[in-house]
Amino acid sequence: MKPSLFTRWFGLLLAAVLAATLLSGCGYNQFQAKDEAVKAAWAEVVNQYQRRADLIPNLVNTVKGYATHEKDTLEAVTRARAAATSFQITPEVLNNPEAFQKFQQVQGELSNALSRLMAVSENYPQLKADTSFRDLQSQLEGTENRITVARQRYIAAVQDYNITVRSFPTNLTAMMFGYQAKPSFTVENEKSISTAPAVNFGK
Q1: What is 135-192 written as a DSSP string?
Q2: In this structure, is residue 66 part of a structural domain?
Q3: Do the domain assignments include residue 184?
Q4: Is 25 a member of any domain?
Q5: In which domain, by residue range, is 148 found?
Q6: What is the pLDDT, as a whole number, of residue 188?
Q7: pLDDT computed for residue 200 by the predictor
Q8: Mind listing the pLDDT tens digit for each residue in 144-183?
Q9: How many domains does one find in the chain?
């Protein structure tokens, strides 16, 4: 005897409810929430780095007006900015340790170039007194602080996500659905995370 239409629909509904319950219990929903948290934290990191990059052309032009002899330093900043902004930031970066490392590398090179520019600027009192320069200094300082906070939040979100990927029984769900540990920022020491780069030009 064939099952009735109602019986078939009821069976499908029961199977769907059971599957949803099992997926929820094994951490599937956790992965969805944590993955979205990582993406949101990453978006803020990218946003703050872009904000820094947007400030650099005006900074370079202002310094150029007073420090014409610092051509090499200014060109180094310009090249580093070009490398950082030309890096293709795609969603795959979060699942590709090599690409993530490259992103960190180009941003680190830009940070180093900016640090050298800041050191050079100390030799030009008139530059430090320039209103536009001081305004850019303030904006850059605030952006560096926001970058630090954004990186901290991303590191925390990735740590939370990766613990779920590696813990039992959610690691079984991770293997089943292809969830893998995500890369995070690496630093020389913890202080470089908790302290933004100094951008004080002798206020």
Answers
A1: HHHHHHHHHHHHHHHHHHHHHHHHHHHHHHHHSTTHHHHHHHHT--PPP----SSTHH
A2: yes
A3: yes
A4: no
A5: 32-194
A6: 45
A7: 46
A8: 999 999 999 999 999 999 999 999 888 888 888 889 999 9
A9: 1
* Residue 4 burial class via C-beta count within 10 angstroms: exposed 0-12, middle 13-18, buried 19 and up: exposed
pLDDT score at 186: 79
Task: Please give the average per-residue pLDDT across 27-48, as a whole number.
Answer: 92
Helix axis angle, 71-86 relative to 97-121, nearest 10°? 160
What predicted TM-score, i.e. pTM, was given to this entire model?
Answer: 0.80
Q: Which amino acid is at 43?
A: A
Query: Interhelix angle for 28-66 vs 170-177, to 10°?
Result: 70
Instruction: Find the mean pLDDT for residues 48-54.
Output: 96
Query: How many other C-beta atoms are found inside a 10 Å radius of the C-beta of residue 61?
Result: 12
CA distance 18 to 136: 58
**Is residue 22 a part of any domain in this protein?**
no
pLDDT at residue 68, as a whole number: 82
The CATH number for 171's domain is 1.20.1440.20
Contact criterion met (CB below 8 Å) for 169 and 27: yes
Helix (H) or strand (E) holding 78: helix 71-86
Q: What is the mean pLDDT of the chain?
A: 83
Report the C-alpha gap between 15 and 107 in whole angstroms. Answer: 49
Give CA–CA dist 8/87, Å, rounded. 53
